[in-house]
Every structure is written in C-alpha cells, then in structure tokens.
Amino acid sequence: MDTSELAGKAMRRSTLILVVPALLAGGLLRGGPGLVGAASGLVLGIGFFAVSGWLIAWGARRSPEAMTAATLGGFVVKLAVVGAVLFALRHARALDHLTFACAALAGAALFLLQAVSLVRHTPYIPAPAGKE
What we know:
Layout: H1 3-62, H2 64-89, H3 97-120
Helix pairs in contact: 1-2, 1-3
C-alpha cells in the first residue's frame, strides 16, 4: 500500500470519528436545525480539503506543471464556491449557523491535522542512490 492509499484510509477513518459526534451534538443541542447545520458544515469543511487532495493527486500524476495549475486554479474556484455557499446561507433558517460554523471549523481542523501528520512522516529529500 503506497502513501496516498494510507493517507486516504486514515482520512476516512478519522472523518467517521468526527462525523458521528458532530451530528449527534448538533441534533441534541440545537434540534433539527442543529443537525442540518452540523451536516452542512462538515460537508463544507471536509469537502474543501478533500477536493484539494484530489486535485493535487490528479495533477501530480500528470506533471509538475499540471499539479501547480490544478492546485492554484482549484483553490481559486473553491474559494469562490465557499463564498457563494456562505452568501446563500446567510439568512437560512433551516440550519443553525453556530453549529454550521463549529462543524465546518472542526472538519477543516481535522484535515489540517491529518496533513501535518502525513507530512511529518513523509520524507521530502530522497536518499542518495545506494544509501537507501
């Protein structure tokens, strides 16, 4: 199993660990709107970084230039989408805004912590030939 497969498996496992308590807390503490807010926030927070990972992996399989273009272009598009979603939801009564914000931040923090963990264990400088 290569590094990207291990990373994907770790991300899926930790995402499940976050999703269940967040949905339960949102539903129990804030009712139906809290549940909708938690689910929406998790989708937005986790989706933002999951799309990044997919774009970087897709570009890396093609060339360094494709990876750079996919990363930068994807970031601009993602920011526009997140801005549009937040603008559209600003007056929504079907979701609790506090729960939405907490879940989105928790999802983003989860992905950032996972990325730090992966980077910490991934060598960037290859060993010289014959020294592996």
